[in-house]
Amino acid sequence: MFRNLLSRLFADRPASPHLSGQDAEVAVASLLVRLARADDHYGKAEQQRIDQVLARRRGLAAAEAAERRAAAEMIEAEAPDTVRFTRTIKERVDLQDRQDIVAALWEVAYADGDRNADEESLVRLVAGLLGVNDRDSALARQRALDDLGLSGK
């Protein structure tokens, strides 16, 4: 199952110019997992935040979101480098959704209450690779900081 999804996500000539709903969400979830693992500490707070993001994005029940995250953890471990990974998402996901993805990345980056330079750097890199401009990324970052009560840190 996961091999099939990986081949659909990273095919040189995809069957469709857009990712199907579930494939897109697993790709997004995998990107969130990659970010959460960037500081070599992938804890409960980050896992729970990813579950919340996934549930909110598509109206999933908590158990469904956790299952999707678990699948994403396996996909992320097999996925290619971040540049190729984000290029696939950029080419096959609409801009508005990519802006929402960047906002979700900032949420996950700060989910554990820490501001980690590796995670912040990865979000900035991914935002640019997804075609989200610095201003929109910075606004999403500030919202995440405010929502989590970290704006003063």
TrEMBL record:
InterPro entries cross-referenced by the UniProt entry: DjlA_N, TerB-like
Pfam families found in the cross-reference section: TerB
Domain Co-chaperone DjlA N-terminal: 26-142
Name the record gives this protein: Co-chaperone DjlA N-terminal domain-containing protein
Species of origin: Paracoccus denitrificans (strain Pd 1222)
